[in-house]
Structure of Inositol oxygenase:
Amino acid sequence: MTILMEKPELVSQSDFQNHADESKELVLDGGFPVPKSLSGEGFLAPEINSFGNSFRDYNAESERQKSVEEFYKQQHVNQTYDFVQKMREEYSKLNRMEMSIWECCELLNEVVDDSDPDLDEPQIQHLLQSAEAVRKDYPNEDWLHLTALIHDLGKVLLLPKFGGLPQWAVVGDTFPLGCAFDEANIHHKYFKENPDYNNPSYNTKNGIYWDGCGLDNVTISWGHDDYMYLVAKENGTTLPSAGLFIIRYHSLYPLHTEEAYMQFLNDEDKENLKWLRIFNKYDLYSKSKVAVDVEKVKPYYLSLIEKYFPAKLKW
């Protein structure tokens, strides 16, 4: 299947933050209100999250922030190059169960992400909020609507039937392994306790990689991103490469937000990064306490799942 995609209209990271002092709301099919500028042009990012803090503010004083920092300490100490290789080998078998994409969406009702300072709601609501916000601004890019819906499905790794992995092995910002830990990584100080930190093969800027090698050749910390990418790819999805790129690297904030590790990108990565940066606005800023009416939007997303995926997938 050939997917025709419009070239994304690039917007700087700073532009994502700017919006009018006064706003209106556009209500989508699921009853989810999306901020709308007075000119009516697109989704605009709110300034604060549902806890009253700035988005991705890892320094705000709160009990949730303390638990988020403890999470990152555990992640930075335990995610090593060898650990990721073992996880990829184990989960590439896709022998946990068979189910549809929508069945997996429903499973996510059991998951709350401890690494997220902006949200403590069931994950299915975040998926639908992201997808509905994307759908508003990019009505013709149905692959992007579906990508937004499924981008976090890999978080089922937290559930017992998928191995019950600890939070630090499933969620949170991701980062390359096999090279030096860039200071753009959140809570960078905890990497000093990682066994790879003093490995001479890994502690230079490029480590075992080279300029332009392509992210596909770079080992990224294990988690829900890479797992869902493996599931989609091995089950023969017809999503375009930009969709798979978004799924695989949407948590790689040091790269797509701070522009660290850019030396590893090849030409295809650079093109796909444009779409990832567009998607990130909806992934981050659409988190809300306002619930989407799941049953109302379900038929639309089932039609997209049927278009781009087989009826049952191996997980």
